[in-house]
Design brief:
Order of helices and strands: EHEEEEHEHEEHEEEHEEEEEEHHEEHEHH
Pfam family, one: FAD_binding_4
Organism: Actinoplanes palleronii
Structural class: alpha+beta
Keywords: Oxidoreductase
InterPro entries: ALO_C, FAD-bd_PCMH, FAD-bd_PCMH-like_sf, FAD-bd_PCMH_sub1, FAD-bd_PCMH_sub2, FAD_lactone_oxidase-like, Oxid_FAD_bind_N, Vanillyl_alc_oxidase_C-sub2
Protein name: Xylitol oxidase
Shape: globular
Radius of gyration: 20 Å
Helix content: 10-25%
CATH class of the largest domain: Alpha Beta
Number of helices: 10
Largest sheet: 10 strands, antiparallel
Length: about 400
């Protein structure tokens, strides 16, 4: 096999071959025959979570499924579909998802497996929209789970440890419009005194900073209602479109300036029709209890010079609590600190370790699809239940790799 890398190019997969099934029956046959296997989604993980020394299995070639439920509150989709394609088809039916991530280019099954998220104090991560799963177990058996089943909360954000997810049923709601505004130079004094109100000021709110100064550089505010002034807690309305990374052209970004538009053309920061970037970056993210949000931001500020030296931009977001066993938002409303680094692993890893030292005591949980050095999954309240579940679905460790062995034991 020709060398295959992830989207960022920092990981070269060790798989001996890539399998491209065209049906669920082929997935079942390939899984049953494999000795080692991992599922390859859209390649947006920044570590070896998807790697294997056996077979990689891509679900991209499965027949597209977008089946609206009879009561129009759910949609059943295949395991290879990406959010951008699904969103367009849902909107054409007058329906919407509750939230989207920054990039619409990522696969639904991969994003769900890693509890990837958007932003909003009232909104759970993308995995919380899952109402049903169809999983191929290690022996090739197709297992269907639904919300309310005992194993369901462990099977949703399962890191691929239970087997390929060949179909998902998602909650949907009526389509809606949003307006996106960008404000600049949010004073640090406002962050310290009014952070909760700032983060709750819209349907989705993201704060961006390079940590080069003390103020927040940009606020991306997505609202149902129009804003009535040019000021947001002391930040001023941008005089034109902005990219989250300073100096980058904004043509790839979704429309700003308060122009109303469909939910799927405002919730992501980036447009589906553009390549999001060259991939010349690394990413890390830590989720903390929202109750320690101020302390977490101050802890990073103490390292601002170390962080800024290897950083492109940092995004601060919120996610509502959920009951999913391996979700970093399990049983707690969360603040997420997301770091887009330069593409230099040797320079970035020592800074990642420094951040883990200061954020760990505050209860930080890493995004497991990104760059980290420590992850205390054994401290998650339902960790033992998850390892037992994984043992039943995959008793011989067919879906394990080096990283999962380290995380799960």
């Amino acid at each position: 096999m020709e060398p295959l890398t992830n989207w960022a190019g920092n990981i070269t997969f060790g798989a001996r071959r890539v399998l491209h099934p065209r049906s669920v029956d082929e997935v079942r046959e390939m899984v049953a025959a494999a000795s080692k296997l991992r599922v390859l989604g859209s390649g947006h993980s920044f570590n070896r979570l998807a790697d294997t020394d056996g077979d990689l299995l891509s679900l991209a070639g499965l027949p597209r499924i977008v089946e609206i439920g009879p009561d129009r509150t759910t949609v059943r989709v295949d395991g290879g579909i990406r959010y951008g394609e699904l969103a367009t088809r849902l909107h054409a039916e007058g329906l919407a998802l509750h939230n989207m991530a920054s990039l619409p280019h990522i696969s639904v099954a991969g994003a769900v497996a890693t509890a990837t998220h958007g932003s909003g104090v009232r909104h759970g991560n993308l995995a919380t929209a899952v109402a049903g799963l169809e999983i191929v177990r290690a022996d090739g058996e197709l297992i269907t789970l639904a919300r309310g089943d005992a194993d369901f909360p462990g099977a949703v954000a399962a890191l691929g440890a239970l087997g390929p997810v060949v179909a998902l049923t998602l909650d949907v709601q009526p389509s809606f419009e949003l307006r996106q505004y960008v404000y600049e130079n949010l004073p640090v004094a406002a962050v310290r005194s009014q952070l909760e109100q700032i983060l709750a000021g819209g349907y989705s709110v993201s704060l961006f900073t390079t940590w080069a100064g003390t103020d927040i550089d940009q606020v991306f505010l997505k609202r149902l209602e129009p804003m009535t002034g040019d000021d947001y807690f002391g930040a001023t309305l941008a005089d034109g479109p902005r990219h989250p990374v300073p100096g980058m052209p904004a043509e790839s970004c979704t429309e700003q300036g308060g122009v109303p538009g469909p939910w799927h053309e405002r919730l992501p920061h980036f447009r589906m029709e553009f390549t999001p970037s060259s991939g010349e970056e690394l990413q890390s993210e830590w989720h903390l209890p929202r109750s320690v949000a101020g302390a977490a931001i101050e802890a990073v500020a103490e390292l601002r010079e170390r962080v800024a030296a290897v950083l492109q931009v940092c995004e601060i977001r919120t996610i509502a609590a959920d009951d999913l066993w391996l979700s970093p938002n399990h049983q707690r409303d969360s603040l997420a600190l997301h770091f887009t680094w330069i593409a230099d692993t040797d320079a970035v890893l020592p800074v990642v370790a420094d951040l883990e030292k200061v954020l760990g005591p505050l209860g930080a949980r890493p995004h497991l699809g990104k760059v980290f050095t420590t992850a205390a999954l054994a401290e998650y309240p339902r960790f033992a239940d998850f390892t037992a579940l994984a043992g039943r679905f995959d008793p011989a460790g067919k879906f394990r790799n080096e990283l999962l062995e380290r995380l799960l034991g």
